[in-house]
Amino acid sequence: MRRKVHLLTFACIVLCSAASLCSCGKSKEGKVVTPWGEVTDTIPSGDSFDLDQIVANGEIIVATISGPTTYYDHRGKQLGLHYMMAQRYAEKIGVGIRVELCRDTMEMIRRLVSGDADIVAFPLKKKEVELTKDSIDMMVFCGAGNDSIGQWAVNGEKVKLAQSLKEWYNPMIMAEVKKEEDFLLSTRSVVRHVYAPMLNRKGGIISRYDGLFMTYCQPIRWDWKLMAAQCYQESTFDPKARSWAGAQGLMQIMPATADHLGLPRDKIHDPESNIAAAAKYLGQLEGKFSDIRDRYERQNFVMASYNGGYHHIRDAMALTEKYGGNKHSWNDVSQYVLKLSNPQFYQDPVVRHGYMRGTETEDYVRKIRQRWQSYKGVKSPRTGYSNMAPQKAKKHKSKYDV
Fold first, then answer.
1. Rounded distance between C-alpha atoms, residue 222 and residue 242, angstroms
2. What ranges in 95-170 are assigned the alpha helix state H?
3. CA atoms within 13 Å, Cβ hemisphere of 204
4. Among 12, 209, 313, 348, which one is least packed by beta carbons within 10 Å?
C-alpha cells in the first residue's frame, strides 16, 4: 500500500466500505494496521491516483535524492531548490507534501512506475537515465526544468497531474525559488540587534545574562563562559532574535525543540526560560555522545550537533572511521563534516542522512572556541550584575533544570 489510512477517516472508511466495494469494480486488497487491529483496505486496481485523488487525499508524494539543489535538512528545516519548488506546486493545488528520499535515480523511477510516488522532483535527463522500454512508456517528463538541464517526471497514467505541472511551471519560478533560498541561507534572514561580545571586560562582565549562564550551566557541569560564547554566536545576546527557520531567543531554540524540552512557545523569548531550556538540551546532547570520553572533545560534538543536527554529525563520524580517522576527535571528524557537501561522501553507503552544509557547522564550533578562549581570562565578579544575578536566580528552581 502506497498510502496509510488516516486515523481521523478510519471510521468513515469502515462505514462506507460496503458501498465502495460495490462501486469499485475490479479491486486489490492490502493490510492496514490501525489502533483497532489489522484490517483489509480495498482500492480499485485501475486507480492511477491522478490529480483529483491527490487533492482529495490532501498529500502529494515526491521522490528525490539528497543534495544541495534537490533536498536536505538544514537546522531542522528542509531546503533544496527542487524540494522548494515542489512545495510551491503543492501549495498551488492545496495539498501537503511528503518526501520519499531515494538512494539513486533508478530507485526514484521504480517508485514512480510502481505508484509509490507521484512526482520525481529531480532533474532527470532522459538520454542519460538507463530506462527499460516499459519504464519510458510509463513516464512523462514535465514540470521543473527542461531537456538540457533535466526535468521532473510523473507516471504516464497521471494525465491530469502531468497537464497541471506543464501549465504551472515556468523558468521564472526556478529563479524566484533560488533567490529565496539564497536569502534564507544568508545572515540577512536573521532578525537581531548586534550587541558587543563583551559588555565590560574591566569589570569582568561578558553580558547581561552571565548570572543565568552560571546558574543553568551548573547542573550540566559546563563552563558558563563556553555557553556565553555559544549564545553570542547564536544571537549576539539579543533575546528577541529570530531566524527564518523559526529559531528564537538568546540560544535560538527551534519551536519543535522547545516542545521537546517542555518550553512553552510564549516563553521562548524570555531570557531565563530560553537559557534554561538550552542548557537542558546541551545536557541531553552530551548524553548521546557518551562514547566520547574526553570532555573537551565531547563538548565540540555537542555544539556541532546543536547547530548542524545530531544525525549529520554521526554520519561524519561514520565516514571518519571508514576512512581511517579517529571518530572521537573533532579535528578529524570536522573534515568529514565539510566533506558531507561532496556527493562522493554524502552518497556513501555509511551516510544515512545525506547532504549537509558542513562549512557552517565547522565555522560555528571554531568561532565559539575562539570566543571562549577570549572569555577565559575574564575574572567573574562576586556581586550581581545581570538581569537576574546568580544569587537571585538560585532562590528558585526552573522546570527546565536538568
1. 25
2. 105-114, 133-137, 159-168
3. 10
4. 12
3-state secondary structure of 101: strand
Amino acid at 356: M
pLDDT digits (tens, 9 = 90+) for 293-344: 999 999 999 999 999 999 999 999 999 999 999 999 999 999 999 999 999 9
* Residue from 358, 316, 335 nearest 72 by CA: 358
Give the separation between CA 170 and CA 5, rounded to whole angstroms: 35
Kindly give, in sequence order, each residue whose CB lies less than 8 Å from that of residue 170, ignoring residues fewer than 6 positions away: none
Which amino acid is residue 283, in one-letter code? G
Helix axes 171-184, 81-93, angle to 10 degrees: 120
Tell me the three cell numbers of residue 109. Answer: 523511477
Nearest CA among 97, 111, 95 for reference residue 63: 111
DSSP codes, 231-272: HHHHHTT-TT-B-TT--BTTTTB-HHHHHHHT--GGGTTSHH
Nearest to 184 by CA among 78, 256, 258: 78
Q: How far is CA 224 from CA 195, 221, 273, 299, 385, in A?
A: 19, 9, 16, 13, 15
